[in-house]
Automatic annotation (TrEMBL):
Residues 173-315 form the Glycosyl transferase family domain. Gene3D superfamilies: Glycogen Phosphorylase B. This is Glycosyltransferase. Pfam families: Glycos_transf_1.
Length: 344
């Protein structure tokens, strides 16, 4: 029996789904330490019975070390480097077992990143033997931090294939409805989205609507309009009817390191509009094939992309949705599981 220890900060549904799939292997024993769920995204998770759970709040640095030594893992995964106790444990195991950190940052060349690049041999490389990134958008930074190609794992963020692919199979038509799924915070581009939609309705009268799922610090500042629905936070397992009631997904973020939701909506068979600053769009948005990109912050380009769908025949939108589903297959939860199994 091989033991894997995961030290996690804020859990997400897509990670839990991959972990549950990993736990189906009878030769693996999974241990998960995790932080409490955020109030703005109160996810409710269901875990495989084989996964042994530990609340981070119940442990200090010393007792967490004692727990790790009791488990004696053959592989250690850390979701980042924010928790100093997690780093201490990673450092302890660095030279004896695969010690992995996740990272979704893009290389921007900022002063902070330049410093991180220089001191990485004294910091990150002392804790981790491998770094796990979502995709190509993060590879340059990982290389600059001193990780070799064989130490860089790809495909860390993976959509729940089973859940969202089921929606693709259920889809019967393509309603004239755009959908946004994300937090209500400024850098998600929500104000650009709402303004662009309203201006487009005025400049080019049409019968399309916009549904927004999510909540956050700017919930009370949401813009009201007869054709915009604000539904608040919806548990992933309860999103089905809203996704099936839409044909085009929009993510207008000013900056998004990755954006698993892009993969999720691609699996569900939605055409899409994404800003140029979304990491996942490099893998799951093919220009003109399953959607359109636009320059972040540009209302005119966002409106133009939305106008293209408003003027498009349903058959063409259907074709784009099919293309999204096909493109989504390039990364699966089984790929994620295989990445870990290859290391142990």
């Amino acid at each position: 029996m091989k033991k894997l220890l995961f030290l996690y900060t804020e859990l997400a549904d897509y990670f839990v789904n991959c972990l549950n799939l990993l736990a189906q292997d009878p030769e693996l024993e999974i241990h998960l330490v995790f932080w409490p769920v955020k109030s703005e995204a109160p996810f409710q998770f269901s875990f495989n019975d084989k996964i042994q759970l530990y609340q981070r709040a119940d442990y200090n640095k010393q007792t967490l070390h004692a727990l790790s030594q009791e488990i004696a893992p053959q592989l250690l995964f850390c979701s980042g480097w924010r928790d100093k106790a997690y780093l201490s444990i990673a450092k302890h195991y660095r030279s004896s077992i695969p010690s992995i950190s996740a990272m979704d940052n893009h290389w921007k060349g900022s002063l902070r990143q330049q410093i991180a690049r220089v001191i990485s041999p004294l910091t990150l490389k002392r804790y981790f033997s491998h770094i796990w990134i979502p995709g190509q958008a993060q590879k340059e930074y990982a290389l600059k931090l001193g990780f070799k190609k064989e130490q860089i794992l790809s495909g860390f963020y993976v959509a729940n294939q089973q859940r969202f692919e089921a929606l693709f199979r259920q889809r019967e038509d393509y309603p004239k409805n755009f959908i946004f799924v994300g937090r209500y915070i400024p850098h998600k581009g929500i104000y650009d989205l709402w303004q662009a939609f309203i201006e487009l309705k005025e400049e080019y009268p049409n019968d399309w609507t916009l549904t927004c799922l999510g909540t956050g610090s700017d919930w009370d500042q949401r813009i009201q309009h007869p054709d915009i629905k604000h539904l608040g936070f919806i548990q992933p397992q309860d999103m089905s009817k809203h996704i099936l009631n839409a044909s085009v997904f929009i993510l207008p973020s000013h900056f998004e390191p990755w954006g698993v939701v892009v993969h999720e909506m691609a699996y569900a068979g939605l055409a899409m509009i994404c800003s140029s600053e979304i990491g996942a769009s490099r893998q799951f948005l093919k220009e003109g094939e399953n959607g359109f990109s636009f320059a972040a912050h540009s209302l005119d380009e966002l409106k133009n992309a939305m106008r293209k769908f408003i003027q498009m025949e349903e058959a063409q939108i259907l074709k784009m949705g099919d293309a999204s589903h096909d493109i989504a297959q390039s990364l699966t939860p089984q790929t994620w599981v295989n990445t870990l199994k290859d290391l142990i």
